[in-house]
Amino acid sequence: MCTLGEALTEEEVDNMIRQADTTGDGMVNYEEFARMIAT
């Protein structure tokens, strides 16, 4: 995100991952990532 000009805090990044991680496994897989980007 920094290369896109967005300086995010660690908390903001954690929130983004939690929102995208629909399976609850602590990781964002391709499908979750694609869904997050498309919205």
UniProtKB/TrEMBL annotation:
The keyword Lyase does not apply. Keywords: Repeat. It holds the Pfam family EF-hand_7. It comes from the Eukaryota. InterPro entries: EF-hand-dom_pair, EF_hand_dom. PROSITE patterns: EF_HAND_2. Residues 8-39 form the EF-hand domain. GO terms for molecular function: calcium ion binding. This is Calmodulin. It comes from Tetrabaena socialis. The lineage of its organism: Eukaryota, Viridiplantae, Chlorophyta, core chlorophytes, Chlorophyceae.
